[in-house]
Design brief:
Elements lengths: L1 H8 L4 E4 L9 H8 L5 H9 L4 E2 L2 E2 L11 E4 L15 H9 L1 E4 L3 E6 L15 H8 L7 E2 L8 E7 L2 H12 L4 E9 L8 E11 L3 E6 L4 E12 L3 E8 L6 H8 L24 E9 L6 E5 L4 H15 L5
Parallel strand pairs: 8-14
Antiparallel strand pairs: 1-4, 2-3, 2-4, 5-6, 6-8, 7-8, 9-13, 9-14, 10-11, 10-12, 12-13, 14-15
Length: 322
């Protein structure tokens, strides 16, 4: 089993020297790659407890590696490693069908709702693990950014380390354009356009993450605009300037207009029937990491969400009963 073999191979602490190919990568992502098969929660536990060291000092999850760093990787017991799981034929077919664009440097997908982007915390395989199974000849496949499990839409994957570094640079410089469509409760104020709030991530119930607006938290910015109003809801376009965890969801809920179907931040039942959270990554624009050509991808709302809007529009047109 792959997981058992991995655990045996790192039964003793070891030190790895960071090569040029790994420079600029966050330590948490680096560990999840080199300790393939170890659950995400266990990796973060190692970091919190100070088991991982960089040049002799404790390493925080967001620490970025530089060439020549000496990384102490702690021993991993057999119980820590997840058993090998192969993606089902259905999962591979679903991921293959979601690919919109592919070349030697990047992959662009339309992620289905309900599929986590990576495994861990009770999830055997995520989209990236399934994708690696679909592309065994590709030496490296890494998520450029992430989408929540319940969010659908455009997702970017790098096929080379150089592409990942270049695209992460665009994210840090806010040079990448991201747009989401969200259906929120109530009448979103036209004047509420630029939202800037400090956010803090709290972990509750194991690895479950809850984000709150809190003074001293990380600054987060989102631009909102009204697309369409309905009787009890509003379709808004959200453009995140920063990329904080659950940013759009928390910003919308903070002003009393939670995203419909949001299991964490909507405190009341949705005013209309809905089977999933209405949040869709509709558009992504970026400079190609090799050619620097501007590329933009727009994916339509999935049928389930488009049907919700059609039903609301039909209700608005229906004549009142005599």
């Amino acid at each position: 089993m792959r997981g058992t073999a991995l655990a045996d191979s790192v039964s003793q602490a070891r030190t790895a020297k960071v090569r040029e190919d790994d420079a600029g990568q966050r330590i948490d992502n680096y560990l999840m790659r080199v300790l393939h098969g170890v659950p995400r929660g266990r990796v973060y536990s190692m970091l919190r407890r100070g088991e991982v060291r960089i040049n002799g000092g404790r390493a925080k999850p967001h620490r970025r590696l530089v060439v020549g760093d000496q990384v102490r990787i702690p021993p991993v017991r057999g119980a820590d490693a997840a058993p090998s799981v192969s993606a089902s034929k259905r999962a591979r077919s679903e991921v293959e069908a979601s690919i919109w664009y592919e070349d030697d440097h990047i992959l662009v997908l339309d992620k289905p709702a309900g599929m986590a982007v990576h495994g861990g915390s009770g999830i055997g395989l995520g989209l990236i693990e399934v994708l690696r199974g679909c592309r065994p000849a590709v030496a490296r496949l890494e998520l450029v950014h992430r989408l929540d499990r319940d969010t659908s839409g455009v997702l970017l994957v790098a096929k080379r380390r150089s592409a990942l570094v270049e695209l992460h640079g665009q994210l840090r410089a806010a040079a990448m354009s991201k747009q989401y469509l969200a259906l929120v409760a109530g009448r979103w104020p036209t004047s509420l356009r630029a939202v800037e709030l400090p956010l803090e991530v709290n972990e509750r119930y194991g690895s479950e993450r809850i984000v709150r607006v809190k003074a001293g938290g990380k600054v987060s910015r989102t631009h909102f605009s009204v697309v369409q109003r309905y009787e009890r809801t509003t379709l808004v376009r959200a453009e995140p300037v920063t990329g904080r965890t659950h940013q759009i969801r928390v910003h919308a809920a903070h002003f009393g207009h939670p995203i419909l179907g949001d299991p964490k931040y909507a405190t009341a039942p949705p005013p209309i029937e809905l089977k999933r959270m209405f949040l869709h990554a509709s558009r992504l624009g970026f400079h190609h990491p090799a050619t620097q050509q501007w590329m933009e991808f727009e994916v339509p709302l999935p049928g389930a969400l488009a049907g919700v809007l059609d039903a609301q529009a039909a209700d608005a047109r229906a004549p009142e009963a005599p």
